[in-house]
Amino acid sequence: MKLYPLQFEPILKERIWGGEKLKTILNKPITSKITGESWEISTVEGDVSVVANGDLAGKSLNHLIDLNPEELLGNKVYQKFGKQFPLLFKYLDAREDLSIQVHPNDELAKKRHNSFGKTEMWYVMQADKDAELIVGFKEDSNAALYLENLKNKTLLSILDNVKVEVGDVFFLETETVHAIGAGLVIAEIQQTSDITYRLYDFDRVDAAGNQRELHVDLALDAINYNKIDTYKQYNKDLNQSNSMVDCPYFTTNFLPLKGKVVVNKSGDSFTVYMCVEGDFEIEYEGVKFKYIKGDTILIPAELKTFVISGKGSLLEIYIS
Predict the structure, then answer these.
(1) What share of residues in the chain are helix, strand, coil (percent, to 5)?
(2) Annotated catalytic sites, by residue?
(3) 215 annotated binding-site participant
(4) Cα(138)–Cα(228) distance, rounded to whole angstroms?
(5) Which CATH number, 2.60.120.10, 1.10.10.10, 3.40.50.300, 3.40.1190.10, labels domain 11-232?
(6) 120 annotated as a binding-site residue
(7) What is the pLDDT of residues 176-225, one digit of tens each?
């Protein structure tokens, strides 16, 4: 099986807080006015990505990994994770505030759900005026104070809300209480997990008048109650991979592109590019693949040398 730069059919998710920007800004084929998420690369059970381009179109990512694990995932990734694809890539459109939530760490997620935890990062692609994120506590707190404020519906008063702009990056380790605010389009990179504990949902109801389920008890021992710094500063040197986040689960670089860049990889890991601005192309073995803003591309690990050219901004993700 000959591998090449792979794109996948977007897995579109309606959400009570979703909107239409995934279509107007990121060219996704949504038909609903409340589309909140586009899962770009996923092997979450029930939501496995299917190839959209080339000779392998129609094949699932799990099928490709099963047949070519080391060639696709990379030597180190395969040794560590076997045939599991360890990351999940998304774009999110928050027309309204998301629920305030937290994700359990690896140990707790494994024990309760036989799942990975959910360490994640956000890159802000679009922000309405005064749009905000909630990221952790304003000051060191504790379970009793948290529960008291939750009961009194004053939880927002002890959480840290931050005004954001395009290009801002936040790294959220598991156990960090957080929420994406209204008026934001976010690129999200995370461990392969769909485990979320919802703490507060602003008393919203769905079309049938039902409130969404909360997970207050489950979340109690999953929360880091200390103040933490989630904002990441990074350089924007042209035609270079600028470090944003480097953690045990993934490495993410910022690649501002104007012209041509020759990329050489070791074969240890797959690489993913998320186009967050502009357009570009990848040339591999004389074949050119063209991409636009909102595209997400999986470069199999065996593709060690290729050329990227164009004018735009890319997130470059792999596992160190």
Answers:
(1) 15, 40, 40
(2) 198
(3) no
(4) 9
(5) 2.60.120.10
(6) yes
(7) 999 999 999 999 999 998 899 999 999 888 778 888 899 999 999 999 99
